[in-house]
Automatic annotation (TrEMBL):
<keyword id="KW-0804">Transcription</keyword>
<dbReference type="GO" id="GO:0003677">
    <property type="term" value="F:DNA binding"/>
</dbReference>
<protein>
    <submittedName>
        <fullName>DNA-binding FadR family transcriptional regulator</fullName>
    </submittedName>
</protein>
<dbReference type="InterPro" id="IPR036390">
    <property type="entry name" value="WH_DNA-bd_sf"/>
</dbReference>
<dbReference type="InterPro" id="IPR036388">
    <property type="entry name" value="WH-like_DNA-bd_sf"/>
</dbReference>
<feature type="domain" description="HTH gntR-type">
    <location>
        <begin position="41"/>
        <end position="100"/>
    </location>
</feature>
<keyword id="KW-0238">DNA-binding</keyword>
<dbReference type="GO" id="GO:0003700">
    <property type="term" value="F:DNA-binding transcription factor activity"/>
</dbReference>
<dbReference type="InterPro" id="IPR000524">
    <property type="entry name" value="Tscrpt_reg_HTH_GntR"/>
</dbReference>
<keyword id="KW-0805">Transcription regulation</keyword>
Length: 256
């Protein structure tokens, strides 16, 4: 479950994404004034949901329309936005109504992933995002004192050392990310990284830049990072992560 502070940072972009998705599928695009009314209604419903415990009913369709002084269709359109955000569940039949919920990581990841499909970033831009986040993640992981997780990370190091294929790289990189995010509880940080990595994998499947990727450099760079984390040295972990990221960018694009 995502903390409210993380949710607040995503609500604006989520609302815009959802409005774009809804309008794209609509038969007729509403006027600018109508869009603003729907947006305002969604904001009001969102505030009600976040002010109440998850799973609590915030009202029925007629009641909400009356209290917000808008039409039933406006409430329905606003509800679709909140359903896309993972904040609202509409129950029909006896005991039905509008019930608040809290979005899971998968809800936000799916939404932002869909947005990137419509507005694809460049391969360089995606690498920039993942690089900055990964540097911070490695430094934070080096402060983790969970011995079981550190042993798991060291065990993974041995598997990385023997990796000899791009398929193996993808699997091991995924495991590395999973372990690091268990060492560092930062849900918003994790969400951004996973979305960026998902976009990077999409680009990889298209074959953009992977023929220039140095598997050996990746393997040794990741092992140095793991050694720094296992040694509880945040500064060194950040340095090694940043150094490897720069090497990757230089190898793929000739950037220094």
């Amino acid at each position: 479950m995502i903390p409210s502070i993380a949710l607040a940072k995503f609500h604006s972009i989520c609302a815009l994404i959802c409005m774009n998705l809804i309008q794209h599928n609509a038969q007729t695009e509403p006027s600018i004034g109508k869009r603003q009314i729907v947006r305002n209604a969604a904001d009001a419903l969102r505030r009600r949901i976040l002010a109440a415990p998850a799973g609590e009913q915030i009202g029925s369709l007629p009641t909400l329309a009356r209290e917000l002084e808008v039409g039933i269709v406006t409430i329905q359109q606003a509800a679709r936005i909140l359903e896309h955000e993972g904040l609202l569940e509409v129950r029909r039949g006896p005991g039905g109504g509008y019930y608040g919920r809290r979005p899971q990581m998968a809800d936000l990841e799916r939404m932002l992933g869909a947005y990137l499909c419509g507005e694809p970033g460049s391969w360089r831009e995606i690498l920039d995002i993942t690089s900055l986040l990964f540097n911070r993640l490695c430094a934070a992981a080096a402060r983790c004192d969970d011995m079981a997780l550190r042993r798991e990370l060291v065990d993974l190091r041995g598997q990385i050392d023997t990796c000899d294929s791009m398929d193996g790289l993808g699997r091991l990189e995924g495991r590395l990310q999973d372990i690091l995010f268990r060492m560092v509880s930062q849900p918003l940080f994790e969400l951004l990284t996973r979305v960026a990595l998902g976009s990077a994998r999409d680009v990889e499947r298209e074959g953009n830049g992977t023929d220039m990727f140095d598997l050996n450099a990746w393997r040794h760079g990741r092992m140095r990072i793991i050694d720094a984390i296992a040694g509880l040295d945040p500064a060194l972990a950040h340095f090694e992560a940043d150094r490897q990221n720069r090497q990757i960018l230089a190898g793929l694009f000739g950037f220094e």
